[in-house]
Inverse folding.
């Protein structure tokens, strides 16, 4: 047999074709109507000492860029987004909670949007179950602050309690602010919804919510760190086990491409901008100096990595994804 370019191409095509011929090829083509939209379940596990940590993604929401940073020119914000290869008109803000598994005792840090968020959010329960968890197994829910994307996962719109067997723990300073009726009555109209949201979530269990102070061990290995500015009682954490450390930054930054690179910028969500900037710099500097692993609520999934100093600024260095836990 004489080997020609035509016979080589024909042989290659036959070798690549699946059993079943052209019909099978059509069924497995990426453009076939049988293709499945969406991604694999959004969970990622890693270890901090003996504690198994699972990041659970709750989707994302798009935020218009204009007006998002209160103390920076729009062109500068767009330049930072462009440098990070992100859209410059409206960019995605992701939501990522943490599950701590300590010998079968399950603790959540924040709960996502529940069924009250943007249409592109609300993926939390699907991803939580895909990771092998059940809401009835949750022993403790630790809340960092009372913004809706952190607390609405506790209670659905119809009033259903999502974690019926869990103890709920919240920062004392955050509770004192958001559950104060006088403050709610004096609040600007645009803030009243946040006050009402806290009452919707916590009202049915108000007598059973446990309040914790800063610098206290909330659950074994998890110590609260006062991180005010974003909200009055906004709280970060240090998770420690053996030689392992993880700084849980909560909403210390929004997207790292903006606020780790530019720690003095102020997001529209920061209630006390000056205090938020001071807190952000302090915590980022601590993470960089201690070379501690960090986790952010709003960083790109799996939302964990390290902080490196970069002149008068910082860089977020994501972890390398690993198939091993």
């Amino acid at each position: 047999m004489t080997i020609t370019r035509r016979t080589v191409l024909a042989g290659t095509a036959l070798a690549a074709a699946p059993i079943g011929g052209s019909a099978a090829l059509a069924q497995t083509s990426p453009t076939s109507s049988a293709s499945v939209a969406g991604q694999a379940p959004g969970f990622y596990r890693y270890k901090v000492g003996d504690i198994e940590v699972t990041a659970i993604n709750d989707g994302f929401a798009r935020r218009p860029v204009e007006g998002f940073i209160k103390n920076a020119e729009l062109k500068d914000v767009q330049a930072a987004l462009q440098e990070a290869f992100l859209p410059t008109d409206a960019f995605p803000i992701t939501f990522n909670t943490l599950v701590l598994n300590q010998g079968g005792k399950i603790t959540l840090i924040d709960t996502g949007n529940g069924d009250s968020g943007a249409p592109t959010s609300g993926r939390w329960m699907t991803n939580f179950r895909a990771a092998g968890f059940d809401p009835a197994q949750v022993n403790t829910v630790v809340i960092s602050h009372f913004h809706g994307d952190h607390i609405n996962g506790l209670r659905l719109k119809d009033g259903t309690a999502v974690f019926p067997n869990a103890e709920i723990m919240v920062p004392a300073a955050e509770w004192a602010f958001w559950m104060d009726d006088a403050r709610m009555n004096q609040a600007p109209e645009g803030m009243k919804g946040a006050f009402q949201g806290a009452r919707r979530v916590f009202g049915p269990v108000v007598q059973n919510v446990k309040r914790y102070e800063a610098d206290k061990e909330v659950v074994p290995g998890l110590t609260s760190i006062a991180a005010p500015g974003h909200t009055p009682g906004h709280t970060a954490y240090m998770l420690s086990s053996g030689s392992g450390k993880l700084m849980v930054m909560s909403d210390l930054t929004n997207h790292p491409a903006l606020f780790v690179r530019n720690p003095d910028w102020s997001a529209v969500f920061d209630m006390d901008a000056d205090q938020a900037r001071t807190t952000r710099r302090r915590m980022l500097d601590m993470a960089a100096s201690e070379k501690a692993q960090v986790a952010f609520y709003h960083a790109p999934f799996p939302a964990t990595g390290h902080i490196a100093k970069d002149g008068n600024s910082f860089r977020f260095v994501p972890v390398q994804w690993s198939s091993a836990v």
